[in-house]
Every structure is written in C-alpha cells, then in structure tokens.
Amino acid sequence: MDSLKSDNKMLRVGLTGGIGSGKTTAANLFAALGVPIIDADEIAHRIAKPNEIAYQKIIDHFGKDIITADKTIDRKKLRHIIFENNTEKKWLENCLHPLIRKIMRDEIAALHAPYCICVIPLLAESTDIDFIDRVLVIDTPIEIQIERAKQRDHATEKAIQKIMGTQATQSARLKIADDVLINDADVESLRKKVVQLHQRYLQHN
Length: 205
Description:
Blueprint: E1 11-16, H1 23-32, E2 37-39, H2 40-47, H3 55-62, H4 75-84, H5 86-109, E3 115-119, E4 134-139, H6 142-153, H7 157-166, H8 170-175, E5 179-182, H9 187-202
Parallel strand pairs: 1-3, 1-4, 2-3, 4-5
Helix pairs in contact: 1-9, 2-5, 4-5
C-alpha cells in the first residue's frame, strides 16, 4: 500500500491480522524495541469513554441500555448488537472510523522516529486509509486463531467464527501484504521474527 511519506521520511507500517492472530503481541514486541505504536482499537476505546468525542453519539444511537452502572459503554453488549445486525455495525464504523483516522494522522505527524507501527485490524477492509507506506500482516492458521480468541474472550467457537465471517479473509489480507509474519508458534519465535523485521525497517532509507 503506497502513499507519500511524511516530511520526516518516517516509514509508516500498517499492522493487521484477523481475530486471535497475535496483533497485540506483535505490536508489544515492536514497542519493546522502542518503536512508536499507534493502535486504532486503543483510540476507539479512548474516544468512546464518558465525555469523549464519540461517547454521546453512541449513546444517542444505541440507547441507554448499553451504559453500565459507572456510565461507561458496555463493550460486550455493544459488540453483540453490531455482530447481530450489519446495519448497526456499519453505523458504528461510519461514526468511529473518520475520528480514528484523524487522530492517527495527528499522532503520526507528532512522531520523530525511523518508523512507526499503526495497528489497524480492519486495514484489509478499508479503502480510505492513505497514510500507510507498508502493510505487515500477522498470519496465523485459522484453528490457532479460533483457539486463542476463545481463551482470550471467553467466547464460543461459534461466536468467534461469526466475527471472523465479518472480517476480510486470510487470502484478502495476504494480497495487500508487503511483509508477513507467520505466528504459529510461541512468543519467543515471534519475537525473533519481529527483531529481524525491525532491522529491515530501520534500513528503509
């Protein structure tokens, strides 16, 4: 995925992958090497907190039933709604994604580093992200994805498969990839691959 680089020539790497692929683990390994991380999901959580920019819009649309006792949005309940109703899923994406893109652009502009990692789970599904220079796909066998997601989210296999059905396919992600990290073993194995890729990204100029 090509686009003009920022004035400071910092390489902007979009990290993506399916549910349970290990995106967060990979991002944390890059962060441990001192690489700036900008995470779309983290931004989404941030702007949906009380008094933040998306909070009231979400409440006005979905109603007060999704508010918890401490006035935060019940993310589990909201997730259930949007994965049961594609129209509601599209509404939420149309509400959040422009805000997330703007914040990501602003945070990228404030950085001064050889490269940064932008974690964007729905990168393969998006057509309007033009601030990424390279796409890094975390590729994991589907059966491992399902098992990891089941353990992490305490969800059933059926629920995980339903979420996977709303995401880009493995082949669609690989088609947009400039780089691929196979994550089918332990964290130490992934760490070694991240270190190798880190050295390549440092040499991008």
